[in-house]
Amino acid sequence: MNYSTLKKSVALSLVALTGVASLAVAQDAPATTSAVKVFGGRGQYRTWSIGVHGGVLMPVVAIGGTNDFNKWDANLGYGLNIRKQLGHSFGLELNGTRGKLSGTNEGISNPAVKDFETELQYAVDLRGVVNVGSIDFLRRENSVGFFLTAGAGYMAYAPKITTQTGVIDWKGKAVGPADDRHDAKDYVKGFYIPVGAGVKFKVSERVNFNLGYTMNFVDADNLDGVYAKGQTKDKFSYGYAGLEFSLGSSAKPSLEWTNPLATMYDELKDPTLRQEVEALKNRVSAVEKSVEDLKKDTDGDGVADQFDKCPGTPAGTAVDGSGCPLPKPQVDSTATSNVTGFEKIGFDFNSSVLKTESYPTLDKLSSVLRENGGKVTVNGYASSEGTAAYNLKLSKDRANSVKTYLVNSGVNASQVATKGNGEANPIASNDTEEGRIQNRRVETARN
């Protein structure tokens, strides 16, 4: 096939493919994206596609390199591809190509090999396809995208060369450098690496029109039938145009044209989601109001209204856990003039924690101080176990525990002074446990 015939064949093929694409545009309805969620998975998209392509096969690549012939021909190539889109920017494609490669040593005087023609029975590869530029931050939908490809493949071919003495056709007697020459085959087989790039156009929701170029690096030096240089490898390229058809439900969008930013925006602006958010805000507001109602204390006595059995108590009134005023203690004249006569406050061994049995005594003392004023000194003591320094600190802690209780009950802190006396002034013998229990105490005295 000469170059003129090739151009006509490719042109007719593209016209036919474009006609099919136009028909698909007329009959295809846009896919809906309303149900698509950011983390909804691939199941909400169309991810499979098939394609056909045709173009020009050449025994050279765009990046140059050595060649065994000084002139190459452009021949028709064609093939199929199946692609699985794994994400909006990456997919795996199984690609197959057939065609012919040829070239000549034109203008060379008496070349050993005049020309070659290689039948490419098949070249099948699995390649990764990376979509670049498929996300446009300024556009919701894209109709043009660029892609890069790379992978690995396996091919079968049969070179035919013309020498000064005749024609050598490898088909039916193909052998390679490592082949057993007594076991000829129809085709030489080997591996190759395809690397390419291209641009795709979104013709419709289901149809893409692709233009691409792939360089194929063969793991052999016999693609053109000539072992010209021992360490070089042959190569060929394929420039093509093709149509790709997306498979699956029309209700789903195609994953390769998805813009994740637009999907995220749509999900955030989803009226249903906004309604759910507003409903949640209302529920939170209701809970907050309920909490505030639980905390409400109208009379300020420290007991919430819903637990207050005696609402409206005057400010400053001492109340119990139900919000009712505590009974006023009967204090005689001697008690108001001299705060003495209260029971001693006892403590456990090595402890400054008040016992619950001491609360009535402390409540009585608190009532006297709040109603009659005056000041007291709280004296703390300890038994003789331990060092004198430790017992002095322990006695101070016991005195401070009593002061803290009195202040929390409403007594002004300035009315209470504390003093730690350590082991001094025992009121019983420290030689017995009974005596030591009595010495672990606090006493109060009016200033």
UniProtKB/TrEMBL annotation:
Q: Name one GO cellular component term.
A: pore complex
* Family annotation (Gene3D superfamilies): 2.40.160.20, OmpA-like domain (3.30.1330.60)
A biological process (GO) of this protein is: monoatomic ion transport
Stored Pfam families: OmpA
Localization: Cell outer membrane
SUPFAM superfamilies under this entry? Answer: OMPA-like (SSF56925), OmpA-like (SSF103088), TSP type-3 repeat (SSF103647)
Where this protein primarily resides, as one coarse class?
membrane
Q: Where is the signal peptide?
A: 1-26
* Transmembrane stretches, start-end: none
**Taxonomic superkingdom:** Bacteria
Query: CDD domains, per this entry?
Result: OmpA_C-like
Q: Identify the residues that the record assigns to the OmpA-like domain, covering every copy.
A: 334-447
What keywords are annotated for this sequence in UniProt?
Cell outer membrane, Cell projection, Cilium, Flagellum, Ion transport, Membrane, Porin, Signal, Transmembrane, Transmembrane beta strand, Transport
One Gene Ontology MF term: porin activity
Q: How does it sit in the membrane?
A: Multi-pass membrane protein
Q: What is this protein called?
A: Flagellar motor protein MotB
